[in-house]
Specification:
There is one protein chain. This protein is of the alpha+beta class. The chain has one domain (2-27, 69-237): Rhomboid-like fold (Up-down Bundle). 53% of the residues lie in helices and 17% in strands. The chain is built from 9 helices and 5 strands; from the N terminus they run H-H-H-E-E-H-H-H-H-E-E-H-H-E. It has helices at residues 2-14, 21-26, 30-34, 73-76, 84-105, 107-128, 140-153, 176-194, 205-225; strands at residues 40-50, 53-63, 158-165, 168-175, 235-237. It has a 3-stranded mixed sheet. A two-stranded antiparallel ribbon has the order 1-2. A hairpin with a 2-residue loop joins strand 1 (40-50) and strand 2 (53-63). The longest helix has 22 residues, at 84-105. The protein is globular.
Length: 238
């Protein structure tokens, strides 16, 4: 978490005029994996001020080939984020679910687990967006793997969550599998709608789905191998 925040600060300082050199160099671009020596051009929506008005425009970026094997971006992309809210949202979910999964796996196995889920999520996005020229960044696929592991490891845990009703928020305690299962169904719903959109909506839904499934599967396998620590009792809060 600390490393991800530090990298984001460097990324934020290096970005300017809507162009993020970190995202273009270390983000996972599906088309670059299949065409590693080709300059890739993509269009990015942006807002520009014209007099007193703001107008929607498209900026064109050329993505140069990476000086390293582009398949490494399956890993490097999970340490980058598109903005403060992207970072805060991901780190919040990692904070909520991650420590409990780490309790079951141990520090070293948890780190390896997190990285493997991130790579699996990136690979899922690559397979489902084979010809996309848009850089993909974010830790949400790896965190989805943590959530998938939590879904399997803590079937009796309960979540205190917020339910918005107009301008009023109510707190409701629900079973963690129900909360996470509902989240997963939403990812599938939007993932099915995203086919053919080439990532235009800006969310890598299938990376979330792939990360969740791999995380849950790995948790099941580690449990069958007897490589998990006993589960503590807890109620998490969101």
């Amino acid at each position: 978490m600390i490393l991800t925040c530090w990298i984001f600060i460097q990324q934020f300082r290096a970005s300017g005029h809507g162009q993020d050199p970190f995202a273009e160099a270390y983000g996972m671009v599906p088309l670059r994996l299949t065409h590693p020596d080709t300059i890739i051009r993509y269009r990015e929506p942006a807002i520009e001020r014209v007099g007193r008005h703001r107008v929607a425009v498209e900026r064109t970026h050329d993505i140069e080939p990476t000086p390293f094997n582009p398949w490494w971006t399956l890993l490097t992309c999970i340490f980058l984020h598109g903005g403060w809210m992207h970072l805060i949202g991901n780190m919040w979910f990692l904070y909520i679910f991650g420590d409990n999964v780490e309790d079951r796996l141990g520090h070293a196995r948890y780190l390896l687990f997190y990285l493997l889920c991130g790579v699996a999520a990136s690979l899922t996005h690559f397979v489902t967006n084979f010809n996309s020229p848009v850089p993909t960044i974010g830790a949400s696929g790896a965190i989805a793997g943590v959530m998938g592991a939590y879904f399997w490891l803590y079937p009796r845990a309960r979540v205190l969550t917020l339910i918005p009703l107009l301008i009023i928020f109510y707190t409701v305690v629900v079973p963690a599998p129900l909360f996470l299962g509902f989240w997963f169904v939403i990812q599938i719903f939007y993932g099915m709608q995203s086919f053919g959109a080439a990532g235009a909506e800006g969310v890598a839904w299938w990376a979330h789905i792939g990360g969740f499934m791999v995380g849950m599967t790995m948790a099941f396998w580690l449990g069958r191998r007897g490589w998990l620590y006993p589960a503590p009792r807890m109620t998490i809060r969101i």
